[in-house]
Amino acid sequence: MANKKTSNPFSFVNIAKRKKQQKIVFVILTIVLGVGLVGSSMFWAFGSRSNMPQNSDTATAQQQQQSEESIDKQITDLEKQVKEKPEDLELLARLAGLYWQNGKGQQAVETYQKALEIKPGDVKLGKDLASTYYLMGQYDHAISQAEQVIKQAPSDAEAHYLLGQFYAYRGDDKRDVQKGLTELEEFIKLQKEGLDVDKAQQMIQSLKAENK
Predict the structure, then answer these.
(1) What is the pLDDT of residues 167-180, one digit of tens each?
(2) InterPro entries, per this entry (predicted)?
(3) Phi first, then psi: what are they for 202, rounded to 5°?
(4) Considering the domain 1-30+121-212, what is its CATH architecture?
(5) Closest to 98 (Cα-Cα) out of 128, 115, 74, 116
(6) 49 falls in which pLDDT band (50, 70, 90)?
(7) Cβ atoms of residues 49 and 61 within 8 Å
(8) DSSP states of 143-212
């Protein structure tokens, strides 16, 4: 049965241009890691905080320091909980999200991998890992992981949405627009309607225009 509603809505940010004037579009996901990646870590990861209202440089620095200290404390607390409950998938997923949010991408990846060792084939964990790989610039790993998820759950619309973007907007010379279009079209077929479908349609139009 087709998924009519993805669990995690997306937004898209065009943050840079490739050397050949091709747009790099990064997926900003609410990966539901126990923390919301969108609101905080993505601003942090791509430097978008400069667009946020600021009272003063000093106030901003203080807020950032407090935020970092808070994340560090959450990580420390979760690490202790994971030691006590090493097979708790919810704790592991939250810890992975906080690692990413705190700039510890490799630790996030390793934590997702550990969770998948406990529960192999978990679709959500697989998508979270694929998304983390992509945001780290490990495009081959991202694509491989997303393809694995689709083999397990071919009707998962969100997985096709991710894979389409991984193919079409990867920031290296292996970009494959045609495969990206195929996956985005499959997402639309499965999802049928909604904000993400509108965005996917816009992406398809842009990609086709770019490659005329």
Answers:
(1) 999 999 999 999 99
(2) TPR-like_helical_dom_sf, TPR_rpt, Ycf3
(3) -65, -40
(4) Alpha Horseshoe (1.25)
(5) 74
(6) very low
(7) no
(8) HHHHHHHHHH-TT-HHHHHHHHHHHHH-SSTT--HHHHHHHHHHHHHHH-SSHHHHHHHHHHHHHHHHT-
The string over 150-189, giving b where at least 16 C-beta atoms fall within 10 Å of a residue's C-beta and e elsewhere, is beebeebbbbbbbbbbbbbbbeeeebebeebbbbbebbbe
The span from the CA of 118 to the CA of 108, in Å, is 16
Query: d(Cα 189, Cα 42) in Å, to the nearest integer?
Result: 29
Options 1.10.3210.10, 2.60.120.620, 2.160.10.10, 1.25.40.10; CATH of 60-119? 1.25.40.10
Quote the tokens at residue 143: 């694509």
Residues of the chain with CATH 1.25.40.10: 1-30+121-212, 60-119
Rounded Cα distance, 209 and 212, in Å: 5
**Helix 195-210, helix 157-169: angle, nearest 10:** 30
Length of the chain: 212
Residue at 59: amino acid letter: A
What is the pTM (predicted TM-score) of this model?
A: 0.73
C-alpha–C-alpha distance, residues 119 and 45, integer Å: 29
